[in-house]
Each structure stands twice: as C-alpha cells, then as structure tokens.
Amino acid sequence: MFLRRPGGQAQFSTQHAERQPLREVQRWIAEHPDGDLSVDALADRCALSPRHFARAFAAEVGVTPGRYVDGVRLETARRQLEDTDDAIEKIARSSGYGTPESMRPPFVRALAVPPTEYRHRFRTHRPGEN
To answer: Would you list the DSSP string of 78-116?
Structure first.
C-alpha cells in the first residue's frame, strides 16, 4: 500500500548565501546539526557580531539563522528515519534535538506526524533488504 506524505508539509528550501563566510556557515550547520548552532557560535565562525551575522544571514539566505538550523535538523532527522535503522534516540541526538521528546514537537508541527509514525510510513530501507 502506498502512503503519501502528510499534506501541508513545506519542502525545506532556502537559498545559498553569496558571501563565502555565510556559505561556509551553511555548510557547517549541515555537517554538524548536533553542534552548538547558536547565533553567537555561528557568528564567531564568521568573525561577525551576533547582530550583524543574524541580519546578514537572514538577508542572504531568506530565513533567520534559527529557522535555518531548525530546517536542517528536521531534514537530517527525516532522512535518517527514512534511510537507516538507527534508534530514535540516536537520531534525535545526531540531528541536534538531544532527545526523542524534543524531536517530536517539530515533527508534528512541520509534518503532522510524530517521528515514529513518520518512520513507519516513509522508511525506504528495511532490515535484510539489499
């Protein structure tokens, strides 16, 4: 039986920053969703003040740094739920949520289903499959 993804979910799509330091921060976020991704920490990576970083990032990327980080974390967790057999606890940690309880509200808000239900519906990798 084919199940469609929940209606109303937005595809996480933003533009890439034009300035190299901001593009590097976007790459860093994608590679380290479980890291310290606070505005202060990301601004330090660009050698900018937090206020200037937040303004420049939003102007070039189209969303605030916080929303961008939220989107990357959600997309990271979503892909892991679809493509791996990793425990929900491991996925929550590696995607930056820390705990399954912290991961649940963003999933329900964005995808209208909790992580376990999302995995049940959309998993592409099954144990024993080649």
So the answer is: HHHHHH----HHHHHHHTT--SHHHHHHHHHHHHSS-HH
